[in-house]
C-alpha cells in the first residue's frame, strides 16, 4: 500500500490525542496539543527535525522500536521544562527542582514509555498489530544524532510523527517524535477504513 499524508495525518491525530491524554493523567493537568503532524524526512536530515537540538542542554529520552519495523521514539524537553515537569509530578511549586536526580531521570524515561505506547497503541489497534519499544534511555543530543544515523542510515526517507504538548498553566512544553521506516504502512493501513 502506498502511504499518503492523509492516512498518516489521521494516524498522527489519533496517536497525538492518546499521547496527550496519557501526559495529562501523569501531570494531573490539562494538556494542550499545539502540533500534531506527520512528514517524510530524508534520513540524513533527521536530527534537524527536533527543534530542541538548538537548546544547549535539552533533556532527551529515547526508545528503539523492537518489533517488525525499524524506528525510534523520542521525548524532548528543554532543561527548564524538564525541571518544571518534575516539580509538577512531585506536586512541588514550580522552580523547586534545580538538578535532575536519578529518580527524576527515571520519571522522564517512564513518561516517554507511557506516552509513546499510548501513541503506538492507537496506531496498531485497528491493524490488529503490535509495536513494541525497548526500555527508554536518557541521553544527550549528540548521542541521539548517532542513534538516528545507525537506525536509519539505509533508509532514503523516514516517516516522522511529531506531537507538541503543553501544560500552559505551568509553562511546560514537551515534544514527542516517533520515527519509522516505511514498513509502518502495514500498521496504519487499516486506519483509513
Helix content: 25-40%
Tell me, briefly, the overall form.
globular
Count the beta strands: 6
Largest sheet: 6 strands, antiparallel
**What is the name of the CATH topology?**
Chemotaxis protein chec
Query: Count of helices?
Result: 5
- How many discrete structural domains? 1
Protein model, in words:
The protein has 193 residues and is α+β, with helices and mostly antiparallel strands. Helix content is 38%, strand content 24%. It has a single domain (5-192), classed as Chemotaxis protein chec (3-Layer(aba) Sandwich), CATH 3.40.1550.10. A six-stranded antiparallel beta sheet has the order 1-5-6-3-2-4, with helices on both faces. A hairpin with a 6-residue loop joins strand 2 and strand 3 (71-77). The chain starts with a helix and ends in a 5-residue tail after the last helix.
Layout: helices, strands, pairs:
Blueprint: H1 5-27, E1 32-42, E2 59-64, E3 71-77, H2 79-89, H3 102-124, E4 137-139, H4 141-152, E5 157-167, E6 172-180, H5 185-188
Antiparallel strand pairs: 1-5, 2-3, 2-4, 3-6, 5-6
Helix pairs in contact: 1-3
Using brief descriptors, characterize the structure shown.
globular; 6 strands; about 190 residues; Chemotaxis protein chec; alpha+beta
Q: Quick gist of this model?
A:
The protein is an alpha+beta fold and 193 residues long.
Amino acid at each position: 500500500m502506498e502511504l499518503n499524508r492523509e492516512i498518516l495525518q489521521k494516524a498522527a491525530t489519533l496517536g497525538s490525542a492518546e499521547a496527550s491524554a496519557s501526559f495529562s493523567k501523569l501531570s494531573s493537568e490539562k494538556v494542550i496539543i499545539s502540533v500534531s503532524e506527520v512528514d517524510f524526512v530524508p534520513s540524513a536530515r533527521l536530527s534537524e527535525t527536533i527543534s530542541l537540538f538548538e537548546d544547549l542542554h535539552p533533556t532527551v529520552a529515547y526508545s528503539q522500536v523492537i518489533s517488525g519495523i525499524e524506528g525510534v521514539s523520542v521525548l524532548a524537553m528543554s532543561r527548564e521544562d524538564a525541571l518544571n515537569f518534575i516539580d509538577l509530578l512531585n506536586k512541588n511549586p514550580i522552580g523547586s527542582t534545580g538538578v535532575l536526580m536519578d529518580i527524576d531521570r527515571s520519571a522522564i524515561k517512564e513518561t516517554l514509555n507511557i506516552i509513546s505506547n499510548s501513541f503506538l497503541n492507537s496506531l496498531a489497534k485497528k491493524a490488529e498489530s503490535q509495536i513494541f519499544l525497548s526500555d527508554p534511555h536518557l541521553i544527550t543530543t549528540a548521542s541521539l544524532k548517532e542513534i538516528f544515523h545507525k537506525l536509519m542510515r539505509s533508509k532514503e526517507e523516514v516517516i516522522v510523527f511529531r506531537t507538541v504538548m503543553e501544560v500552559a498553566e505551568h509553562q511546560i512544553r514537551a515534544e514527542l517524535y516517533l520515527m519509522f521506516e516505511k514498513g509502518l504502512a502495514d500498521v496504519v493501513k487499516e486506519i483509513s477504513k
